[in-house]
Amino acid sequence: MAGESRVVFPRLLHRGQGWIALDKPSGMHSVASPRSDGGPTLEGFLQASFPECRGLPEGGLVQRLDFATSGVLLAATDPESRDRLRAAIRDGSIGKTYLAVVEGDRLAAEGDFRLFFSSRYRRSSKVTVRDHGEPQEEGRCRWKTLELREGPRRLLEIALIGAGRRHQIRAGFAHLGAALAGDTLYGGSPASRLALHSWRIELDGACVEAPPPALWEPAAGV
């Protein structure tokens, strides 16, 4: 019917030994929680679409993406692989590369950061970023500029180093004075969507990529 919102379902990108990689759309929660409010989740999609994922915690997911973040995401298809992949996520041996559009002219063309991230309080929507902190709070990124845009904005390729922290890219670049386009939670300007995309994952000799959404074209305003 006219006016109804259309649910965009994830797309299978790759099957590995004991794992699958999906392309998560923006606007879908990774797992069921009070915030998902009964809406579609990647956890539910995995359990409904892949018999091997039924019965695994969170449908086999070994990582999560924010509601508005799109891109490649990993799920295990058996308990042993889930344990292996979760350990690999923690020790940083799985390569993870993102694309983001950031705002302002304060950021160097390329560089890296080492910052510390902590929750403000239980279930806080934001995280606190500091230049110093405890080892378990550390988050590291390395970036390079792929394209300059009007605004001023720039398209970045971002390598996540190590395990990663909640909102590491969003809060980290805002801390550096380069908030993501569409990320009003951390001071970014309103846009058609959050400009953060999980682009590439590398493991077991495979390199899996999720093409960025068409909305990311410069003419679309992101």
The arrangement of helices and strands along the chain is EEHEHEEEEEHEE
Q: Spans of 5+ residues with little confidence (pLDDT < 50)?
A: 1-5
Coarse shape: globular
Number of DSSP strand runs: 10
Strand content: 25-35%
The assigned structural class equals mainly beta
The amount of helix comes to 10-25%
Average pLDDT rating: 91
Total helical elements: 3
Radius of gyration (CA) equals 17 Å
Question: How is the main sheet built?
Answer: 10 strands, mixed
- Cα distance, first to last residue? 29 Å
In a few lines, what is going on in this structure?
The protein has 222 residues and is mainly beta. The chain has helices at 42-49, 79-91, 168-175, and strands at residues 11-16, 19-24, 70-76, 95-103, 110-119, 127-130, 138-149, 153-161, 196-203, 206-209.
Primary descriptors:
single chain; 10-stranded mixed beta sheet; mainly beta; globular; 10 strands; disordered N terminus; 222 residues
Structure characterization notes:
Strands 1, 2, 3, 4, 5, 6, 7, 8, 9 and 10 form a 10-stranded mixed β-sheet that branches. About 15% of the residues lie in helices and about 35% in strands. The longest helix has 13 residues, at about 80-90. Residues about 1-5 have low confidence and may be disordered. It contains 3 helices and 10 strands. It is globular, with a radius of gyration of 17 Å. The protein has helices at about 40-50, 80-90, 170-175; strands at about 10-15, 20-25, 70-75, 95-105, 110-120, 125-130, 140-150, 155-160, 195-205, 205-210. The protein has about 220 residues and is mainly beta. The two termini are about 30 Å apart.
